[in-house]
Amino acid sequence: MKIVKARAHTNIALIKYWGKKNTDIIIPMNNSFSLTLDHFYTDTKVTYDENLKKDSFSLNGEEIESQNVFNFLDYVRQLSGKNGFVKVESINHVPTTAGLASSASAYAALAAASSKAFGLDLSRKDLSRLARRGSGSATRSIYGGFTEWIGGDNDLNSYAKPFQENVEWDIRMIAAVVNSKPKKITSRSGMQTVVNTSPFYGEWVKNANNSIPLIKKAILDKNFTTFGEISEENAMKMHALNLTAHPHFSYFEPQSIEIMQAIEQLRQDGIEAYYTMDAGPNVKIICEGKNSEVIQKALKLKFPEIELLESKPGKGIQFLD
């Protein structure tokens, strides 16, 4: 018997991944760039036991028949050359499927723990490639801080690499949780509809790839204005694609828009903050630490019922005792 525990933090894409070249092994249309967050993470324990007759998976104490997880474990088993089965127990400290990228931390932790439990000793680059097979964004959660996913065009050259793991800049991310329930349109379904039907998709790919060297320079220069503007514009361009798809769709809820307008008003009042959104209604506010408290107070005053969760830059994959 072998037991391995791993922790992975989720990440927020500042330059989004929205569409696949290859849906089977998850090769993205464009490179993406993210910040790993300390507040949201998944702890996963994998027990390899030759006496087990099949794989099992539980999430937050509840047994789940997840074919995606079982397919992922089949692939790890194939890589290892072993025939045994595993028991997977995950605790998700992220609201699942609510646009807070829970799949990123989930599959990064599963990749790390399951590969080691099956006897593999993978480099972080290869763990990144493996995690990608479960969820595209998971490829970036192997690393801490700022990370780029090199899109590539095959299994070998599509992986993430760290840009700046030890972030010395006092960056904060405030998640305004508008709705923590599962979203009606999954990321996988939404992005494929956009790739297949949006007349503007080609321009999105070019613009996203061109934005990455610009946001890297802003980070190196500690130019928060440029950093925030690039992040906000990329997010809005992604969501604009959804409105140009057939059938068109949106992840925005009325309160999502109200929060974005509140952030724009704060900027006009001299408090610098920017927003980003993934596939879900929750708004993530990017700010510097010096402005975090005043931003949260302003939002709580206007939206007393919403939950605000603050994050700092987080760590990469960790193996736990």
Automatic annotation (TrEMBL):
Might you give the EC number(s) for this enzyme? Answer: 4.1.1.33
Its family remark reads: Belongs to the diphosphomevalonate decarboxylase family.
What is this protein's name?
diphosphomevalonate decarboxylase
Q: Which organism is it from?
A: Ligilactobacillus hayakitensis DSM 18933 = JCM 14209
Annotated Mvd1 C-terminal domain residues = 174-307
Q: Which UniProt keywords apply?
A: ATP-binding, Lipid biosynthesis, Lipid metabolism, Lyase, Nucleotide-binding
Example GO biological process: isopentenyl diphosphate biosynthetic process, mevalonate pathway
Diphosphomevalonate decarboxylase-like N-terminal domain location is: 8-160
Q: Which NCBIfam families match?
A: mevDPdecarb
> Per its UniProt record, what SUPFAM superfamilies does this chain match?
GHMP Kinase, C-terminal domain, Ribosomal protein S5 domain 2-like
- Please give the InterPro entries that the UniProt record associates with this protein: GHMP_kinase_C_sf, Mev_decarb, Mev_diP_decarb, MVD-like_N, Mvd1_C, Ribosomal_Su5_D2-typ_SF, Ribsml_uS5_D2-typ_fold_subgr
What are the GO cellular component annotations? Answer: cytosol
Gene Ontology terms for molecular function: ATP binding; diphosphomevalonate decarboxylase activity
Tell whether Nucleotide-binding is among the UniProt keywords: yes
